[in-house]
Amino acid sequence: MTASPAAAQALPRATAGAYLDAVGRARALGPLIAASADTVEKTRRIPEPLLTELHNSRLLRLSLPRAFGGEQDTPMAYFRAIEEIARHDASIAWNMFVANSTVLIAPFLEPEIARAIFTNPRTLMAWGPPNACRAKAVVGGYRVTGRWDFASGCRQANWMGAHCNVEEADGSLRLNRFGRPTVRTLLFPVAQANLLDTWNTIGLRGTASDSYSVHDLFVAEAYSSTREDPDLRRVPGPLYAFTMQGLYAVGMAGVATGTARAMHEAFIALASKKTPRGLGLLAASAAIQGEVARNQAKLDASGAYLDATLAAIYAAADEQAVISVADRGRVRLACANAVQAAIEVADAVYKSAGVDAIFPGSPFERRFRDIHTMSQQIQARSAHFEAVGQILLGHPPETFL
Description:
Layout: H1 5-10, H2 16-28, H3 30-43, H4 50-57, H5 75-86, H6 90-102, H7 111-118, E1 125-127, E2 134-138, E3 141-151, E4 159-167, E5 183-189, E6 194-196, E7 210-220, E8 224-225, H8 244-271, H9 286-316, H10 325-353, H11 365-374, H12 383-392
Parallel strand pairs: 1-4, 2-4
Antiparallel strand pairs: 2-3, 3-7, 4-5, 5-8, 6-7
Helix pairs in contact: 2-5, 5-6, 5-8, 6-8, 8-9, 8-10, 8-11, 9-10, 10-11, 10-12
């Protein structure tokens, strides 16, 4: 039964049992995801019955407020559940991360609008990152024409979003409270968008991160909001005290560490039986033993660091106030560290696996392509370390989300 907004304020914080439940549900889907992986790769779509099982698992609603039919789980459960899915297929985990990222707009909407969108238990939303497109402010809402790219999950979505600067009637750009051009998110049914088949990449092919366009589309004011000011959220709770960008980073980290962990585990299995020409058993090599141990430590340590960081901030988070810039920096640092560790482990494993890693269908080849596609995404930028360094040194960026 869906809780009312008032009841949602009184709901207890998720327990360790809920944490394990989310990961357990993710683990239960593992065999079906693994069996569907080739189809996902070839068709760039999530096939049935996997899509229905993902909906039934409610793993696509971990970040959605309970008042609107979601799980409103902890960020720790979110990270570990995505990591578990990524062990079986990175594209499915990426789509799970995106589905849970887009629902973070719900706390910023009028409650009746959020319910109208998310009452359907199969609602999925997709969008691409902001660009130079503008929405023109008109009576009752906005009119927009434009094209956006990288809309992961759009082929399963029934709602789309477009992030735009807002052009006022006099031609000026609307400014936010920081004095910069505001970015407004406009929401509309997927049938009102033209989906463009543009996602032909070396990795994460099953994310179907295609482009889309709209022409002279009217979007009512109520079906719009902004992601750039965390103080504007309408739903209380410690999960939403985290910023949207911070939770984006958590999701990305889960995809990366899960993918690298699967490669690491596959290499351990390979090393126990592979004897390269002119050498001894891989598992008997001191160099390989040391590398396996270091890789294990990197994955376990980075995951534990992110877990502990999220847990500490979540436990201290206010029901209403957004976490501090210092805590936002802690989240970003732990996520960036996890992503970097995952890429390093994936590279080391790929090299040590030799020719076994280069053939399609191996436990390494697709995951190597997937993780290096991730490495080009904005969440994997090394500049995140620099931004956090500025905070640690007492010179935070003007805005840090």
